[in-house]
Amino acid sequence: xxxxxxxxxxxxxxxxxxxxxxxxxxxxxxxxxxxxxxxxxxxxxxxxxxxxxxxxxxxxxxxxxxxxxxxxxxxxxxxxxxxxxxxxxxxxxxxxxxxxxxxxxxxxxxxxxxxxxxxxxxxxxxxxxxxxxxxxxxxxxxxxxxxxxxxxxxxxxxxxxxxxxxxxxxxxxxxxxxxxxxxxxxxxxxxxxxxxxxxxxxxxxxxxxxxxxxxxxxxxxxxxxxxxxxxxx
Amino acid sequence: xxxxxxxxxxxxxxxxxxxxxxxxxxxxxxxxxxxxxxxxxxxxxxxxxxxxxxxxxxxxxxxxxxxxxxxxxxxxxxxxxxxxxxxxxxxxxxxxxxxxxxxxxxxxxxxxxxxxxxxxxxxxxxxxxxxxxxxxxxxxxxxxxxxxxxxxxxxxxxxxxxxxxxxxxxxxxx
Lengths: 233, 174
What we know:
The complex is a heterodimer of chains A (about 230) and B (about 170). By secondary structure, chain A is an alpha+beta fold. Chain A has seven helices and twelve strands. In chain A, the strands form four sheets. Chain A has a four-stranded antiparallel beta sheet, with helices on one face. A four-stranded mixed beta sheet of chain A has the order 4-7-10-11. In chain A, helix 2 runs parallel beside helix 6 and helix 6 runs antiparallel to helix 7. Chain B is mainly alpha-helical and about 170 residues long. In chain B, strands 1-2-3 form a three-stranded antiparallel beta sheet. In chain B, helix 1 packs parallel to helix 2. The two termini of chain B are about 45 Å apart. About 5% of the residues of chain B have low confidence. The interface between A and B is medium-sized, with 31 and 29 residues.
């Protein structure tokens, strides 16, 4: 499904064509879908930003977003519908959300510890803006490293995350994000080094995980927010 | 307080009873469809417990630290078995019970403190030098209510007592 949105126009710059985003539905392994019928993975490819440096406009936006959270909100956010949905899903897949924090709770705690959302690079900041605006996490993978569409499945016996001596074993049955090849990352966890975007990355595959209780409009908006922030100059 | 009813029956072998039949009945493993429905029911219970636990933590936030952590069994995300889900549900239910008991006990203490403050305000001469901090009342801040004599020694001798609220927290470094 291709969507289009008008770009924000900067003063003195020639108008640019509309931003396009082709949203795709990822696959879910049968065993996983049987247990979690509302679990979905959505993804879209976007150009990698030319510079790793956070544009001034995004820095300003991060400062504004920093003002949304103080101590009480960091605790109260767990009761809001979408953060709550991710907390519940964490419980359902055997994670303790007070130890392995959900993405939105993790970013709010990070903001409290740092005293604000400090710039961390264009990609990371675009992901954080999408997360704070929608409470839905967005991950990014180097699209060139992928073999086919993305999906969620269980880790196979003997499967490893990454390659070489620093690769670590994946326990069979662990929930992973994968393409047609080996696992690309643990669900809500680390990505394999081959999937991490780097300086040579030309196209990013943004993906997000929708769980029961998260409306589709929020998931799509998270991808749009991230794509728009990556498009900012 | 909502009651969490276990609508998932876990079949266990019958214990031998004196004078009764001793042979335990064999337990058939649940059919896949039944087990799937049981897991779904347990996940719904876990979602409700997580919501209630979050509500209890937020209710107490800023006043009390309530027990709320339920450690994960095992590492990493995975599909939980029926047994795992049952244990998690039981752990959450127990933690919610503990949290509610803690909140209720502290609530009773705060109610007692507020009742004492009312008596101090009504009859200060019967509560000479009694101190009550805002924290004792379940409120934030460092203020302390204290029954003191008006105008110092004269008030003490004349029996002029009143309740004063000290303001503010101590400055850093005393």
